[in-house]
């Protein structure tokens, strides 16, 4: 049962107004556009698989120091005391973005602010099929984080378990190029990834991350380092994290970050990585019990070592159960009213861990910035798909592709 419970993963985010009033958000920073250009897509790539990579060595705290290296550990970055440490809350939603689930995102996440006046964050791990890229552009321009969840998201799960480096290039490296192109968002704004079904692929996924400018992975659950919780760390050295969905990486990947999925504990103490995967959960109609369930899990972090708290969910779970959505909104309201807890984009957690500062100093920092973009919305179709022969229609922010974009032809040329 444990493996079943752990395999379903979702991330969700909900936002509401704090204290019944809408604070005026500080202006968003606008960074300079990057001149970084994406690599070519992998169409036609026939690179041989590398030999087995050497094993990473045991982590040496003297050699591995912030900002670019951190040993896997439950210790608070920067040696801070828990009371001086910001409690980050990362809400994440997985899979395609479409006209159905955008309603939930708009209703729960938009116009929500943390106690420092900065817009609350959330991260979307987006898979390609049936995604409406005009809506991805909308989420991006609302300041949320767009991350990768593969082009195909295909079954069976063994496809991912056995995936080679070249498959991961096609599913994630190419997806970054595809996402940037179809949603018209900056290539370099896409920094994170999560593999479907939380199925680790050994070294394969990590071998491609640096080439594509992917800074962190948010696939790897831990069920043993939950109290105190495991903080994000890099793969310069061997990880001490439990491997819940093997195979886990064995080689060294300098500067590549792991944002662990620190499991919740259900009502019977069984760990669950996604909220909608908790087996012994409260009655789906009982809002109060759900609110208490969420808060109990949150307090393990907030009253402990303040490791980032994840609310990972699928939108379908929330839209199916309004009482749970209400509990989730109440939880977000609570977090947004706490002076030392912050709903942020996942990548902001990595940024803080690199340069940890006490909560008072964190609150004085400017809000996250992003480069606003526009979308010339275009409706495309029918587009024939080579992988299943079906016709698809797409909403994108670019000129229409010739065929339906897919693995090996991510731009549909
Ligand atoms: Zn998924």
TrEMBL record:
Pfam families tied to this protein? Polysacc_deac_1
Which keywords appear in this protein's UniProt record, sorted alphabetically?
A: Signal
Region feature (Disordered): 21-53
Query: Keyword tRNA processing, does the record have it?
Result: no
Is Signal there in the keyword field? Answer: yes
Domain NodB homology: from-to ranges: 85-215
The name this protein carries in UniProt is NodB homology domain-containing protein
**Species name for this entry?**
Mythimna separata (Oriental armyworm)
